[in-house]
């Protein structure tokens, strides 16, 4: 079976011999935007991330499976994949730990006034801040109770927070206690001090956090988005940050890189990072484990 491996798997080019030993015929291409190194109709499997943003999947007429290096499926034409019976695997669980740690870290930066103390350190100013907040006792709503959401719940729970989940359907969970269906999200937002977004981007979740949703959120609450940028309407977020929210931790944006003209850069109650929450030193080991497990079938 011919397997196309792209540079989206950082160590993919060093794994070709091992892949051969498994019975595959691997072909490597570093950049997914580049010209394909082989005829697409001969490829039966791919390890990639955004390959089909640059190459028409319909040209891969022999394609049987796709292994993504990302957790999300939004860079793959899923309607076509499902219609053709192509198996598709994501990097489930690979990035959950660093993303969950990042979510907690971001909220703590806001609650403990990290910006204030950093700026004073630069100016050699000795000044106390009497407005620091505690995570203990806060209600944290995790919207999207998959692998990333569960890892977030574990860590916020360790700080003594009350956890509530929002997902497709109502349910019970040891981590969350109660999980509410997505149609009940407004009721959850009214009581949540922190809202963490870990849900996938779909037609139904695009612009889910719009002006209406921000109006439903509790005053002085915090929004954390480590999911996909298009889930949040940025103009509505800017307004909410100036009028209602305590702050926001935003790692993903609808258009990346974020435009220099965006007002989000200027707001002091925002922790803004360049789609970086997934990074951790153990990712490659976890990713290789997931890929080989799926290659073995």
Largest sheet descriptor: 8 strands, mixed
Please give the order of strands in the largest beta sheet. 8-9-7-6-10-11-12-13
Instruction: List SSEs in N-to-C order.
Output: EHEEHEHEHHEHEEEHEHEHEEH
Helix fraction by DSSP (H/I, runs of at least 4): 25-40%
- In CATH terms, the superfamily of the largest domain is NAD(P)-binding Rossmann-like Domain
Quaternary structure of the protein: single chain
Low-confidence stretches: none
Give the CATH level 1 class of the largest domain. Answer: Alpha Beta
CATH architecture of the largest domain: 3-Layer(aba) Sandwich
Question: pLDDT average, as an integer?
Answer: 97
Shape: elongated
Total DSSP helices: 10
Short account of what is shown:
With 297 residues, this protein is an alpha/beta fold. The protein is built from 10 helices and 13 strands. It has 2 domains: 109 residues, NAD(P)-binding Rossmann-like Domain (Rossmann fold); 177 residues, 3-Layer(aba) Sandwich (Rossmann fold).
């Amino acid at each position: 079976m011919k397997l196309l491996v792209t540079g989206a798997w950082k160590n993919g080019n060093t794994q070709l011999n091992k892949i051969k030993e498994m019975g595959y015929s691997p072909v490597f291409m570093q950049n997914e935007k580049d010209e394909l190194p082989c005829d697409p109709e001969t490829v039966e499997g791919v390890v990639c991330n955004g390959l089909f943003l640059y190459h028409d999947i319909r040209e891969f007429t022999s394609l049987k499976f796709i292994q993504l290096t990302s957790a999300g499926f939004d860079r793959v034409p899923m309607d076509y994949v499902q219609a053709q019976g192509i198996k598709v695997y994501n990097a489930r669980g690979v990035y959950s730990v660093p993303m969950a740690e990042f979510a907690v870290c971001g909220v703590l930066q806001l609650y403990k006034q990290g910006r204030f103390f950093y700026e004073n350190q630069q100016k050699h100013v000795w000044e106390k801040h009497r407005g620091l907040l505690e995570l203990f006792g806060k209600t944290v709503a995790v919207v999207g109770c998959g692998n990333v959401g569960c890892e977030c719940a574990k860590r916020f729970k360790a700080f003594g927070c009350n956890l509530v989940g929002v997902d497709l359907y109502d349910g019970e969970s040891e981590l969350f206690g109660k999980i509410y269906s997505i149609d009940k999200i407004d009721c959850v937002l009214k009581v949540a001090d922190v809202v963490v977004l870990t849900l996938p981007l779909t037609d139904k979740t695009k612009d889910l956090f719009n002006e209406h949703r921000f109006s439903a959120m509790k005053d002085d609450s915090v929004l954390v988005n480590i999911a996909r940028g298009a889930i949040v309407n940025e103009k509505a977020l800017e307004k909410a940050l100036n009028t209602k929210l305590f702050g926001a931790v935003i790692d993903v944006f609808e258009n990346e890189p974020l435009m220099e003209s965006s007002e989000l850069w200027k707001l002091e109650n925002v922790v803004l990072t360049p789609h970086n929450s997934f990074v951790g030193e153990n990712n490659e080991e976890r990713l290789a484990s997931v890929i080989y497990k799926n290659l073995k079938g």
